[in-house]
Design brief:
Two copies of one chain form a homodimer. By secondary structure, chain A is α+β, with helices and mostly antiparallel strands. Helices cover 47% and strands 20% of the residues of chain A. Chain A is globular, with a radius of gyration of 20 Å. Chains A and B meet through helix 1, helix 3, helix 4 and helix 5 of A and helix 1, helix 3, helix 4, helix 5 and strand 5 of B. Chain B binds a DNA duplex (30 and 30 nucleotides) through helix 1 and helix 3.
Chain lengths: 248, 248
DNA sequence: TATAAATATTCACGAAATCCGAATTTGACG
DNA sequence: CGTCAAATTCGGATTTCGTGAATATTTATA
């Protein structure tokens, strides 16, 4: 995690205000001031600045996240050409298996699903854009399994092992064992550790230089998902992706 | 446009740095410093702060937009339940017409496509998340046509009438006439005014209180798109959407 | 692998902008 | 039309930001 050098308090406060608006899903100025223990006039100046730069919009007396965040976010989502390659393959895999296939990347010790392919175009992947902790998601564990112990520990120091369901791994020792098993079998499993009723099989995608690009996972209800059936197909897709990336 | 009250220079500088990274699609620290005529040490402090808050990531010596922007952007995109209603209807309309249907909203005098439905799930709508000026897009014009002359002028004062193609409207008088025609016929047209070879038919979606929620447009190559065929279908869809929104 | 060059990071201080509280304005509701 | 709650403006004491110079680190070159 970063945490080096000097942090500018003014910018930090502005960004904390953005976080409050995000957490409260829209908020009034005085709510924000109360939440952060700042004077109304202070928050007003921050909101004015954020508004001028379009990160925030005002609707009546409520402040909301601006659509510029979506504009910038889409840029981040399409930043690497590799991502589009992955999306294409994920789409085909989803059609073949008739299950949901998600592509997640990691930054700052958490992971975010940036593409979700499924054969029902009516519904959007409901988890797209959501943050996940890495110890309780299939994608997360598949990526942790590729990292050094040191790097894994940095993540755990920062985020801990928050419990989401009964099945969430609760101790570091247990997680390290699970990562070892993941490396042995070649894919990760998530048996309702993040969400009740959701199981997933995950596999990291590695760059030619050995670093991790992200992770693909196939998810669905436990009664339907057979890891024996899915793992080989997923392996095949990941191999193809890695080959295509390497030969660009 | 906002522009009231006091602007915090520190936050403003941080956000300008984000804009530079966005414009350059990733940049080194000294590039950013040169671009904004700031000392390296200054930019360093800003980048440290932006990194701590996950808006920016460092890869080697390059700084890039962080995936947190995508996280926040998805929240902005799904902010109103009305948007999801629109998306469902847009999807069905796209299937019926076999053409691309986009939903755009406007903030700060420009518009952004937040959903793009088409029957080829292989390709993502390439314009999703991109900013468009309102005078040269079908969505934009359909929304301008609903606004007061005063509000339209604010937009033009801020953004002007940048020329994108040979067909782009170049004068205010011409635009006002076009908006009048739009109101008369009940839908807007974009005949290759923003992109060569792309035509579109647009219609604003209004809230029960008369304000504009956003705009739907159907787009495609001119040889294929018949406004006489599309307009009634689009009208039907918009009416259904407005009815559904009103009865929530 | 050693050396040079380019770039990132740290630091202390003068200059500048933030943050606050009080006063004013705006807007919603009866 | 009056009341109340919220946003907005303003001047000034205090914090902190922005800088150049020095150092460390990374990348390029021989």
């Amino acid at each position: 995690m970063p945490r080096n050098g000097r942090e500018l308090t003014t910018t930090a406060t502005s960004l904390r205000i953005v976080d409050v608006i995000s957490r409260l899903e829209g908020a009034q100025m005085s709510e924000i001031a109360a939440e952060l223990e700042l004077a109304n006039s202070t928050v007003h100046a921050h909101l004015t600045t954020l508004r001028n730069h379009e990160l925030v919009v005002k609707e009546g007396n409520e402040f909301h996240l601006g659509i510029k965040l979506f504009h910038l976010g889409e840029q981040a989502r399409h930043r690497k050409p590799e991502y589009e390659i992955v999306r294409q393959h994920a789409h085909r895999l989803s059609n073949r298996l008739n299950e949901e296939v998600a592509f997640a990347i990691t930054e700052h010790g958490r992971s975010v699903i940036i593409f979700d392919e499924n054969n029902d175009p009516t519904k959007e992947g409901f988890q797209v854009g959501r943050y996940f902790h890495m110890h309780n998601s299939a994608s997360g564990k598949s990526m942790l399994a590729e990292w050094s112990r040191e790097r894994v520990e940095e993540v755990l120091d920062r985020w801990g092992l928050p419990k989401e369901t009964e099945n969430t791994i609760q101790s570091r020792a247990e997680l390290y064992e699970e990562l070892e098993r993941t490396r042995e079998r070649g894919y990760s499993l998530n048996d309702q550790e993040a969400l009740e009723g959701l199981m997933a099989v995950g596999m990291a995608i590695t760059n030619p230089d050995g670093s991790v690009l992200g992770s693909l996972d196939v998810s669905g209800p436990p009664y339907r998902l057979s890891e024996e059936q899915i793992a080989p197909e997923l392996r095949e897709t990941v191999t193809q992706i890695e080959r295509e990336i390497a030969s660009r």
